[in-house]
Amino acid sequence: MGRPTTLLEGLCGHAVSLGAQSIEVNYKDGREWVFANKGSMGIGIANYKSSSADGKELRGNLYAAAKKPVRSVIGGKVYILKVTVLDSFGEDAFAVGIELAPQLDPSMAPSFTPKQGQYLAFIYAVGLDFDVDGFQVAMHDALFMRGFERVANLAGDSR
Fold first, then answer.
1. CATH code that applies to domain 7-100
2. SS (HEC) of the chain
3. pLDDT per residue over 102-141, tens digit each?
């Protein structure tokens, strides 16, 4: 189960369904006005009272996405939502680009951070099969592991 979609993602999904490549959010008369841009034409798709829960959520989503682009699945495709904060007569306005995420090249190995690489190297060095919460899982080298178990059992169980 994935994370719930935000109001911004829902609006971008609606804009994509209309064939738009971007949306704009402007403040006017105490409301947040949302326009889907298709070519040089803008279509009003929503407006929220700025003091409402939806208006506050939308602004929060926009400011968060301005700091870090959002990856979102819209219509079964992965998009990246990039937000730019603009000044409009002393108020913040937002331009949201809706771009298809680049496809991963299956012939290239994925890159890992140094920490992820250390973890993967450890897992593959130790082996993927071991004792998990008391359940015995098949080991690649059972004879080698029996030697460890014998040493561990020297203390014995007091019964």
1. 3.30.450.90
2. CCCCCCHHHHHHHHHHHCCCCEEEEEEECCEEEEEEEECCEEEEEEEEECCCHHHHHHHHHHHHHHHCCEEEEECCEEEEEEEEEEEECCEEEEEEEEEECCCCCCCCCCCCCHHHHHHHHHHHHHCCCCCECCECCCCCCHHHHHHHHHHHHHHCCCC
3. 887 777 776 767 777 666 666 666 555 555 555 555 555 5
